[in-house]
Amino acid sequence: MRILVAEDEWILADWIAEGLRKFAMAVDVVYDGEAADEHLAVHDYDVLVLDRDLPGVHGDEICRRLALSGADVRIIMLTAAASVRERIEGLGIGADDYLPKPFDFGELAARVQALGRRSLAPVPPVLQRAGIVLDTYRRQASRDGRFVPLSLKEYAVLEVLLRADGAPVSAEKLLEQAWDESADPFTTAVRVVINRLRTKLGDPPCIHTEAGVGYRL
Asked: Would the N or C end of the chain have less CB density within 10 A of its end CB?
């Protein structure tokens, strides 16, 4: 799942990002509205965690533009304004969810996960294929009843492959969905993680390489 955190309080923004990364999410961080616009134009995000009072371009304006454009990204708006009227306004301009500050991180993470599931093609909370069972709530995997211990990055890549439901996924798509913007597009990181997954998932081989296309589960 690819997330953009747009929050002008640097410490808060970095804290949110670090916490979400522990849920195997790829997270980019910006600290003003102009940077948020630039990132949204380049990357396909599943969820935008948006501070309503961003400097540069106001959060309300970003939210309105996304709603009018029909973008698939889901928006959870953060704000110090907690009145009912202001929450109604935030939802009225296109936000999918609204969370007043201060907030509990566990609640934010749960809301982001819920929005992420809505931003993608509808899928069950448990993904299954080739004897693999992936519990997206507990972030646990098994194959043929055998528990498979996964790193956060291995989990993220396996989830993308399972969501593809047998269709090939390019290395570029895996980088987009499982890594943040710091990932080098020429890196061997995808191949390394795929090889580790193959080893952990065991025989018979279930992740196949299609030359010039990508990887298929």
From this structure: C
